[in-house]
Amino acid sequence: MTLNKPSVLLTGGAGYIGSHTFVALVEAGYQPVILDDFSNSHPAVLQRLEQLTEQPVICERGNVLDTPWVVEVLQRHRCVAAIHFAGFKAVGESVQKPLMYYQNNVGGLLSLLQAMETTECRSVVFSSSATVYGDPASVPIDEQFPCAPESPYAHTKLMCENILASLRTSDPAWRVGVLRYFNPVGAHPSGLIGEDPSGIPNNLMPYVTQVAVGKRAMVNVFGNDYPTPDGTGVRDYLHVTDLAAGHVAAVSALLAHGKSFTINLGTGEGTSVLEVIQAFERASGRSIPYEFAPRRAGDVAQYFADVSLAGSLLGWRAQCTMDDMCRDSWHWQQRNPEGYRTVTSSPPALQVPVPASSNVSARPAVGM
Ligand code: UFG
Prior knowledge:
Helix content: 25-40%
Bound molecules: uridine-5'-diphosphate-4-deoxy-4-fluoro-alpha-D-galactose
Radius of gyration: 20 Å
Largest sheet: 8 strands, parallel
CATH topology: Rossmann fold
Number of domains: 1
Order of helices and strands: EHEHEHEHHEHEEHEEEHEEHEHHE
Shape: globular
Distance between the termini: 29 Å
CATH class: Alpha Beta
Strand content: 15-25%
CATH superfamily: NAD(P)-binding Rossmann-like Domain
Strand order of the largest sheet: 11-6-5-4-1-2-3-14
Number of helices: 11
């Protein structure tokens, strides 16, 4: 623990949402501690985080399923809270490999909670997803809507929420913040950190950015016959820096008043696939070729959030527009055409001194 700064463990902190939350926590006066096995992230993110925050990054390399080691990490850094990002997140892959998803996502949370119980660190924020609502009967979706998960991935998220609810009931000392994300996109405005999917992107925004730089020929728009204004799927896209700010608000609220909550994080606005493509064309000045393709299995026509609870409980509200999201995605993609594998002769955006090395304690990955 850095003197006077409360330490917060970020499992999966080197990933897309974790790395942006790292920056927001530093700016808010916390000392984040990354725990990551780099199974779906790149160690180069650590140096970028040092550039951005102008301080050494604390990173513990290993797997959250290794409970005794997580106990050690929590104790060593005197963590007062944890944010659990570590988890697999590809819906299609979860259908192919359900055991891997249940073991990693549900087992990972259980391991973390056991370690937290041992060390009496009982404030936790959990990365859940709007996917727990399944195909909603109407929009906007508020937190009282019934949960109806459809994929193994969605089931793991709801199971984790239920585990946290049981724990809270068993011992009121537990403070639990469940955040149901809608569709996080965008990147840090510096262009230093962003989303770095391996292989062919599953999600719309990274696919569009790869078309814009010429890595892929065109966007396949999955379905143009949905009951939406232009026939394409409608989602609630949320800038990742707004999402990161939501995590800071959640941790701060738990530590301040201790009341548990489950809330949606979105903008409250729906945007269609064609509107995303048009916004990206405006932001990049490039034309984005697309063609209509059949609907993607498992997709719903539209969903967007009722975000009033996040406003009243946390005082949080998304600030960025779709144009901001596209501008920052484009900036990240242009500066890092190969993501974190991009070799840059000079730092890609900020010209600030880079500390000599990251504080990475090497540890072999386990489990999976
Ligand atoms: N889409 C395309 N072409 C593509 C990719 C996506 O047309 O190449 C469309 C989809 O059909 C959908 C929209 O773009 O209408 C958004 O699709 P994404 O894959 O970007 O996002 P999803 O809404 O399907 O899923 C995301 C996350 C899930 C999470 C869910 C919950 O990937 O993990 O949001 O909000 F569960």
